[in-house]
Amino acid sequence: MANNIGDGSERNPGFPHAPVVLNERIISSMSQRSVAAHPWHDLEIGPGAPAVFNCVVEIGKGSKVKYELDKTSGLIKVDRVLYSSVVYPRNYGFIPRTICEDSDPMDVLVLMQEPVLPGSFLRARAIGLMPMIDQGENDDKIIAVCADDPEFRHYKDIKDLPPHRLAEIRRFFEDYKKNENKSVAVEDFLPAEAAIEAIKYSIFDSEKKQFVRKKKMGTLGRAIYTVGFWIRETGQAIDRLGCRLQGNYYFQEQLSRHRTLMNIFDKAPVVDKDAFVAPSASIIGDVQVGRGSSIWYGCVLRGDVNSINIGSGTNIQDNSLVHVAKSNLAGKVLPTIIGDNVTVGHSAVLHGCTVEDEAFVGMGATLLDGVFVEKHAMVAAGALVRQNTRIPCGEVWGGNPAKFLRKLTEEEVAFISQSATNYTNLANVHAAENSKGFDEIEFEKVLRKKFAHRDEEYDSMLGVVRETPPELILPDNVLPDKAPKAS
């Protein structure tokens, strides 16, 4: 009886139709009711992507069972048991909201201490790319570390790993299909920058049904872009010439050429709609700003020769500079990566460095190429942190050059998180003020002048009782496109 039910080979006498195969029944029933989020399409890739991203684990470390995602149901299914006498050396899975040439999501191998149950997801940081040819087709793998594993999270590039670990990974993928008579070729590992570019290229917007990536400009595209630039410049030059010909009788209005967001050829900033960028800030080139983050007045984020990634809830305070490294004495190409809920004080300089979640960089501090600030670490105001310095979790560093000063207290750790929250709330206030139109600002000026307050003690001496200012209600003819506030 059990076999009959399982394989659907006999009719159920109580039903006139042939029984439905078990998998079809599951998928059919799921389609007729609300279901859990699909791990490929619905799970966010994460605000720190492409450098730090969410990863769905399909196969746990040490497993000989090849699990994979069932694209229709979103469940993790058993594909097969490996034919060779090998086990997966690390946790293996995929990056949500990505798609590669084989119509599958981007594969990722995550290094961490413990095996993870299939179907779980975790935060990972890309440290390298393993180019692989599987039966004549490209099947590249991202090599990553768990961003929340204290033993592995400090790795930034694949060349920092012990050579034996790389040999172990290479050997597994070369051997795991041999007994199936399938050929697999593994090429030399590539650095973190190649992995980040591969992820960026594969990100797919499932709602818009299109890739997030922008096509890179070819030679013709750059030529057309340059022609357009010079046409615009020529128009301005003609205007200046006309003014000079008019002599003392011309009128010229000086306009600022400042741009808050500016692309460099095909490298354009990506700023979350819930982030705040002050009008006098400059975000240039390949820069990503996450949800709830704030870039304050006078800041410059210049991603011209490499990328800048800023997580969610982070604040970059007034007059700070964030840049990247294309070349240095160590010969490293370094992006700048800033995690979630990080506070960067006024006039700080961050250059080709990494700052993990909930870290604190004081006012006027300078972080040079290759600096790595761990979670819950603090750089004191005015500190100069030399190249390739690592500041461990829970420590305060200061001075020139920066050195270990002391451990953070529990109150100071809590302050770092609260500081980020306070700046997020303050950014919402500034965003609301900066979004006001001219008519709204002028109307508020009239109200403030009409209901200007004196000191309460001064008024009481004169026996003056002042009228309480009413709530601001804009007339319909002032801002016809905005609904007035309720009285």
From TrEMBL:
Where it sits in the cell: the answer is: Mitochondrion membrane
Top EC class for this record: hydrolase
Tell me which UniProt keywords the record has, alphabetically: Hydrolase, Magnesium, Metal-binding
Q: Does the keyword Cell cycle apply?
A: no
A Gene Ontology biological process in which this protein takes part is: phosphate-containing compound metabolic process
Its record classes its membrane topology as: Peripheral membrane protein
The cross-references to CDD domains, in alphabetical order and at most eight, read: LbH_gamma_CA_like (cd04645), pyrophosphatase (cd00412)
* InterPro entries found in the cross-reference section: Hexapep, LbH_gamma_CA-like, Pyrophosphatase, Pyrophosphatase_sf, Trimer_LpxA-like_sf
Q: List all membrane-crossing ranges.
A: none
Which reaction(s) does its UniProt entry say it catalyses? diphosphate + H2O = 2 phosphate + H(+)
Required co-factor?
Mg(2+)
Is Magnesium tagged as a keyword?
yes
Q: What is its EC number?
A: 3.6.1.1
The text of the family note is: Belongs to the PPase family. Belongs to the gamma-class carbonic anhydrase family.
User: What is the protein's name according to its record?
Assistant: inorganic diphosphatase
Lineage runs: Eukaryota, Viridiplantae, Streptophyta, Embryophyta, Tracheophyta
